[in-house]
Design a protein that fits this description.
heterodimer, A: four-stranded antiparallel β-sheet, 51% helix, 12% strand, elongated, disordered N terminus, B: alpha/beta, Helicase, Ruva Protein, domain 3, 2 domains, five-stranded parallel β-sheet
Chain lengths: 667, 307
């Protein structure tokens, strides 16, 4: 069987765990690596097992080279590149897989284990949710087990469970250390930036809005952000989460302004009560944040722009937590600059003549701006407009067609039409996009906003009073604002969102809903407490603990705490106050266990020999022989000082075997 | 070699003392461990027979002293007598100068005479008028005594009981042995018949071998556990002294040697503990004497983990 002794350098136990670990490591990556890698892994695993069974041999150098090159080429074909995160991870997993048929020695297997740990870490770049983190414990445990298995003698046939127990113990012992490092380890700015995984079809607000954009967004139940309020959660119809203002209109789409003035904070005056809140934002790959009107944030990397939105100095690439304070009654930009006025009255020259005519008529009718706005809103309220996710397609003069022909639309239609009309009437106005409302999680008392809560509304400017919010959608479908999209559209949403596991689908099943809320609350905690524990939070917390914070202090504190922890751990493991049971003691314990199971228990005050004599009558010749053999070796070991532990273990194993239920049955 | 001889010797003694194999073996073990033996029993149970038989088969030169209440120390140890021929005092050794001394009914003598013997037992030498005289090697004492309750006895104090390695009682023979006895076999009449099966050299060699029997750490731990338990036993006023532990270990070595082993196992300790330690334990003040020390020793053996 041992045609090449090197093959057996990796114990069976370790190989088994290596294969399990690989499967566990690769599984979550299957969401973003080319699927053929799974096939490749199965093939390599089979090869490896056959090699272990000495059926096949390891590939020769030329074959290995060919496999490597073709795998790299396949990655290139699948991903269009060999650089970048996606291709990099695919390459990593491929290498991780191919290494399997290249294992010769323990050293190779160790490399494989370390590669596995690295692959687990790369998984966090794609998914750092609670579930993913919990899952990653499985591959880590399996890798540790394989590692432990590698320490056995080659050819050892020890049960894989023993290695597993060892690795689980190690993991358990690592927990306090991990917690310590989590709390104290400095959060460094990234040394290099990694290109983020390209996520095609990732939903979220974009910098422009055309008819149908937000309706499309509304079909996604994906989480956008969660907001926790210091005080009570405001009424749902006050939860207008501003993301962007879109002042530029080209006749079809609204776009962001890119003017210099917008980059300066807007002029505003605090007024009334304020409300503090914090938001945990899901990655959006965009720099803009979501805020209630009008918010300021003390966060260093966040600032307010000219249209009162909050913007971070770099895109939100991973879950991001920020704190802000909103002044709902603040006066925003009481004085509008000439340039600002020009932007917000800008209209494309031709097009939509009927709407222009209508707006002009209204202007003639109402000299007062407020009355004009009220009349417009009343128009939407009284005319037979219909709120729907599936509006008919619109042609050249989209606003005209919507206003007077189809009259069916989603929030972007209403806000776009109203802004257009306001501008015609000479009132500076713009479209605001963001989210509206959200689901109040009763388990955790926070608001949870999904992509389907995306919304667009109107902002118009009055001299002296500044920007005012108007929401024509509210006039058409007040339940959208009061309750939420599902209640406004009911079946339409259900029909659109027909995924079996969609959380929305089961929202009327009370206990399921409760369960979902609880789970989401847990996720919220994970994101705010664990992922959100970044530099600033760490500083704040450490300041609370130690007063002034500087890295020397934290370093010293960390080292001291680690020394203490490791010391305690070592004490716990070594237990110097406790005498280690001698090997002979262990033998005795095993012997006693066997005898208890066979109902021949030795009483503690009984010596081995007296016990053997006592139970002799209940044993057959074979068992008696085994028993006598064991007693003799045991006594030699324990009392004559020239015993052999191996021999005693062997004798005990023989005794177990002779008294095994299988043998007893046969008898 | 020596072991075979010893087994033969045991068989020979058992021909005389019927049905007392264990007690005979213990008595032999006691001698092999260089200990003195105290036989305690009612008159007529075979104490003297046993001592005689042992002395004979072991090929030892032996003396017998019958202890009485008017026995004086000089009667045991010997006296210095003025000899006219050499015009000097000459020491006339007493019966104690022998290899095996049978001290019959030791508790009938006065404490003064008792302690004269007991000193000799411990020191293995006799000091008379400033001159030390070594006792021969080997030197054994097999003392017999009647139970304390019997009339005309001076019970041995604890400190002196301690000098005996073992205290054995023979007890009534079982009916089969007694039947054989009455049928004419065994008994004192035959005590003459056993021949010496060992010589002095063999006995000394055996004693040396016994001393090298191994008592491992694990076994010593057991002895310590027993001693500890005896010291904490509620019915005991005082527990086993270190000398007692040593004695137990020494006796167990001899017992293991007789079993053909060169190491002691807990069973050896258990077999000998009643004989070795029961006379070294003291009842607690005020505790009822209802339970014999023997029962308490069994108590200890039943509660202390052996391994």
């Amino acid at each position: 069987m041992s045609s090449s002794p090197l093959l057996h350098a990796i114990p069976r136990n370790a190989l088994l765990w290596l294969l399990i670990a690989q499967a566990l490591v690769i599984a979550p990556h299957l969401f973003h690596i080319p699927p053929w890698i799974a096939g490749l892994w199965l093939f390599c695993a089979l090869w490896r097992v056959q090699v272990y069974r000495s059926r096949w041999s390891l590939p020769r150098a030329i074959v290995k080279l060919a496999m490597m090159v073709s795998a790299a080429f396949a990655v290139y074909v699948s991903r269009g590149s060999l650089v970048g995160l996606d291709a990099g991870v695919a390459l990593l997993i491929t290498a991780f897989t191919l290494k399997l048929v290249e294992l010769r020695s323990r050293r190779d297997a160790l490399v494989l284990v370390f590669l596995g740990f690295f692959a687990v870490v790369t998984g966090y770049l794609y998914d750092d949710s609670l579930l993913a983190a919990l899952y990653s414990l499985l591959p880590v445990a399996a890798l540790l087990t394989a590692w432990a298995g590698l320490q056995q003698a080659a050819g050892s046939r020890q049960s894989p469970r023993i290695s597993l127990g060892l690795s689980l113990r190690l993991l358990g012992q690592a927990i306090p250390l991990a917690l310590l490092l989590f709390v104290f380890f400095p959060r460094l700015e990234p040394l290099w930036s990694l290109p983020q995984p390209a996520e095609k079809g990732r939903t979220g607000l974009s910098g422009q809005m055309s008819p149908g954009d937000i309706a499309e967004l509304s079909q996604s139940t994906e989480l956008a952000f969660r907001a926790t309020f210091d005080g009570e959660i405001p009424a749902k119809n006050q939860l207008y989460w501003r993301a962007l203002t879109l002042p530029l209109f080209d006749g079809r789409s609204w776009r962001m302004a890119s003017f210099g003035t917008d980059l300066l904070p807007g002029q505003w005056r605090k007024q009334g009560a304020s409300q503090a809140y914090s938001v945990i934002m899901q990655p959006s790959r965009q720099p803009w944040l979501f805020s209630l009107d009008i918010s300021e944030s003390t966060q260093a990397d966040v600032r307010m722009l000219g249209d009162f939105r909050l913007q971070r100095n770099r895109p939100v690439a991973r879950t991001y937590l920020y704190q802000a304070e909103a002044w709902p009654q603040a006066v925003a930009e009481p004085l509008l600059s000439a340039a600002g006025r020009r932007h917000n009255l800008q209209l494309p020259r031709p097009g939509n003549p009927r709407t222009r005519e209508w707006a002009r008529q209204l202007r003639e009718q109402y000299a007062d701006d407020r009355q004009l706005v009220a009349a417009m809103l009343a128009h939407f309220n009284q005319q037979p407009y219909h709120y729907t996710l599936k509006p008919p397609l619109l042609g050249e003069n989209s606003i005209d067609e919507f206003m007077f022909d189809t009259r069916r639309g989603f929030c972007e239609h209403y806000s776009s039409a109203m802004t257009f009309a306001l501008r015609v009437a000479g009132i500076p106005a713009r479209v605001v996009t963001g989210y509206q409302g959200g689901e109040i999680n009763t388990a955790g008392n926070y608001v949870q906003v999904r992509q389907m809560d995306a919304h667009a509304w109107v902002e118009y400017w009055l001299p002296g009073s500044g920007w005012q919010r108007a929401d024509p959608t509210f006039q058409v479908a007040p339940e959208r604002i009061e309750l939420g999209l599902q209640d406004a559209l009911g079946d339409e949403v259900a029909a659109l969102d027909n995924s079996l596991f969609s959380p929305v689908r089961y929202r009327h099943v009370a206990w399921l809903n409760k369960l979902r809320m609880g789970w989401e609350n847990l996720n919220h905690g994970w994101q705010s407490k664990v992922l959100g524990y970044q530099r600033e939070r760490q500083h704040a917390w450490l300041r609370q603990l130690f007063g002034e914070v500087n890295w020397q202090r934290i370093g010293i504190g960390m080292v001291a705490a680690m020394a203490l922890l490791l010391g305690l751990l070592a004490l716990f493991i070594i237990r110097p106050w406790q005498q280690r049971p001698a090997p002979a003691q262990r033998l005795l314990q095993d012997y006693d266990r066997l005898m208890r199971r066979r109902r021949l228990a030795r009483s503690p005050q009984e010596g081995m020999q007296s016990h053997a004599q006592r139970i002799a009558s209940q044993l057959d010749a074979l068992q008696l022989q085994a028993l006598e053999d064991f007693v003799t070796v045991y006594q030699q070991l324990q009392y004559s000082g020239d015993g052999n532990l191996q021999q005693a273990r062997y004798a005990l194993r023989q005794l177990w075997r002779s008294m095994s239920p299988r043998y007893l049955r046969k008898r | 070699m020596a072991l075979q001889q010893l087994e033969k010797a045991l068989a020979a003694v058992n021909q005389v003392v019927l049905g007392k194999e264990t007690a005979v073996r213990m008595a032999l073990a006691c001698l092999l461990a260089r200990g003195h033996l105290l036989l305690e029993d009612l008159p007529g149970m075979g104490k003297t027979t046993l001592s005689h038989a042992l002395a004979r088969v072991l090929g030892l030169q032996y003396q017998r002293i019958q202890f009485t209440s008017d026995l004086l120390p000089g009667d045991i140890l010997g006296t210095t007598v003025f000899e006219r021929d050499s015009s000097s005092f000459v020491f006339h050794p007493g019966p104690v100068f022998t290899e095996l001394l049978l001290a019959d009914e030791i508790n009938r003598a006065t404490p003064k005479s008792q302690s004269a013997l007991l000193e000799a037992m411990e020191e293995r030498q006799v000091t008379i008028e400033g001159t030390s005289h070594r006792l021969p090697e080997p030197f054994f004492v097999i003392a017999t005594q009647n139970p304390v309750s019997q009339g005309g006895t001076f019970s041995l104090p604890e400190s002196q009981l301690d000098r005996f390695l073992m205290r054995l009682s023979l007890g009534y023979p079982d009916s089969r042995a007694e039947h054989a006895l009455l049928g004419g076999s065994g008994g004192r009449n035959q005590a003459i018949s056993p021949e010496a099966l060992l010589d002095k050299q063999q006995l000394l060699a055996a004693q040396q071998q016994v001393a090298t029997v191994r008592a491992s750490d694990a076994l010593i731990a057991y002895v310590l556990r027993l001693a500890e338990a005896s010291r904490n036993h509620p019915q005991l006023g005082y527990g086993l002294s270190p000398r007692g532990s040593l004695a137990l270990l020494a006796a167990a070595r001899a017992w293991a040697f007789l079993a053909g082993r060169d190491y002691v196992i807990p069973e050896d300790i258990q077999a000998l503990a009643p004989a070795v330690i029961s006379h070294r334990l003291g009842h607690a003040q005020g505790a009822s004497h209802g339970r014999s020390a023997d029962a308490i020793v069994h108590d200890l053996l039943d509660t202390v983990p052996a391994l």
